[in-house]
Amino acid sequence: MTVTESPPTTTPSRTSRADVCAAPQAHPRSEGSDRYTISEVAALTGLTAHTLRWYERIGLMPHVDRSHTGQRRFTNRDLDWLAFVTKLRLTGMPVADMVRYAELVREGEHTFEARQELLERTRRDVRARIAELHGTLAVLDHKIDSYADARRASERA
Length: 157
Hints:
By secondary structure, the protein is an all-alpha fold. Helices cover 58% and strands 3% of the residues. It has a two-stranded antiparallel ribbon with strand order 1-2. A hairpin with a 5-residue loop joins β1 and β2 (72-73). The longest helix is centred in the C-terminal third of the chain and has 45 residues, at 112-156.
């Protein structure tokens, strides 16, 4: 699915896709026919219905459309936003920062600098964790190699 920067909204004036972050992938339904229930979104995203409701409650997933009976109706745009939020979670970004980012997006283009700073700080954190993991991987590789060497030596004896 396409990952967009802009959080979902039901107002027609905010339907443009901005800052595509990943290669577009097909959505299960085409634009205009893209009304998903919370259980469908849970199945498509791997998030629980509880998490989706929580995201909405804290302002991370605002403006979810409702049917005439009050059921949430998610769109492809909502799926795109959830894919982006999921990537942010994988970076280890705190939920408070994710909510702040969503607020900045809703505030408009004049917040580009603040959004960029927030993402750059997260990128620095991710790079530091990757460097730490590389060091950890080197230790594991060394230990594995030493066990393999010891096994070969014992097989020769």
